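Fold sample X.
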Amino acid sequence: MFETLRDKAFEEEPPFSVRPVECMSGCSHACTVAFQAKGKTKYLFGELKPDRETVEQILKCAELHSEDPHGVMPWSSRPALFQKGLIARLPEVLD
């Protein structure tokens, strides 16, 4: 899934970076994805399917996260796949 996500992000040149991490301790919720930026709310989602639709929705969430000054992604604004599967939401005050 990462390769597809990276390739799609490269095509669109978004204002955020996409990078793999070795482990997010989400094995029981694989596939997982996190959204984070300094001074913003952080999110960890799991139980995602490694397919093209998921990649498209990851990029939409990343755009929402990057556009909000506090990184808040209200439930109703998130793409359908990200209205469920939330593992953690860490407020910006923990930075």
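Fold sample Y, listed below.
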Amino acid sequence: MSNSSRLMVQQQDEVTIVDFLDRSILDEGSIQQIGDEVQELINRAAVPKLLINFENVDHLSSAALGMLITINNRVRAKDGQLKLANISGQIFEVFSITKLDKLFQIHETVEQARAKFK
């Protein structure tokens, strides 16, 4: 497995914005690596403010959804906030069916999501 990151991470004020480099987040190895990378970001922040941008993502597996739930729980455990942005219709449907659209704060754009951080 390569050590090259599967994420592009940028810091804007207190908010850490995470973009995926992969269009499809399907295989176990990638998901594990993404989960580990995001976990590191959470560990580094006293109170994580995490914004995950799905702009580049076309496909997401159920394992990837599981990883997002884990990330959400870890962020909340540190009194942080997690917001998701730019989820395509197809992927949003999966969030909807699994009721994850109720668990996550989902915004249309990164700008809208950023504005919602306290």
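Sample Y note: The chain has one domain: 7-115.
Also: The CA atoms of residues 4 and 33 lie 10 Å apart.
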